[in-house]
Amino acid sequence: MKQLIISLALVAFTAQLSAQDFPTPKPTDEHKVLAKEVGTWDTEIKMYLQGPTEPATEYKGVETIELVSGGLFSRTSFKCKMGNRDFEGHGLFGYDPRTKEYTGTWVDSFSTIPTQMKGKHDAEKKTLTMYCTVVDTNSGQEIKQKQVTKFVDDKTKTFTIFMLMDAGGQEQEIKIMDMTAKKR
């Protein structure tokens, strides 16, 4: 009998919920930062595999970004050939009004471990700075990163990744990648 009462209460509650008009969140000014990146971007990448003072290894790639979930999130797909390896990465990014931070999850074909990131937009500097910890799939080593997107103009952006290292109690930034992207 107790299960029947609980089931009837659940049915009544569900019927009441479906009859209500739930408010749909709308994109805010913070979501305009995500919307700026919508489109297809041709990228030129410089990887500093031997360190930032050595010659860079260069690649070309394509990034496609679209808004999803009513404009509340952006979904990124990125592809390039790195030497004889195909690289494919995907990200889902949004804005968390509780923490007042941009958040994201990144996955790619070079790692089995998703990367979570968060950061802030500086409207004056036209930059979105995200912080994350990347885990090396093979060794399990955690590598802290700072990722900076600079919006040069409506058709150009740069993206730089720094590895963050502890150098005697002070954080040192070591540039490991530069990317320049041009919107088609």
Provide an overview of this structure:
The structure is a single chain. The protein is mainly beta and 184 residues long. The chain has helices spanning 2-19, 31-35; strands spanning 39-47, 57-68, 73-82, 85-96, 101-108, 115-122, 127-135, 142-153, 156-167, 170-183. The protein has a single domain (27-183), classed as Lipocalin (Beta Barrel), CATH 2.40.128. It contains 2 helices and 10 strands, in the order ααββββββββββ. The chain has a 10-stranded antiparallel β-barrel with strand order 1-2-3-4-5-6-7-8-9-10. β3 and β4 (85-96) form a beta hairpin. The model has no long low-confidence stretch (mean pLDDT 90).
Key terms for this structure?
mainly beta, 2 helices, 10-stranded antiparallel β-barrel, 184 residues, Lipocalin, 58% strand
Quick structural summary:
With 184 residues, the chain is mainly β. 12% of the residues lie in helices and 58% in strands.
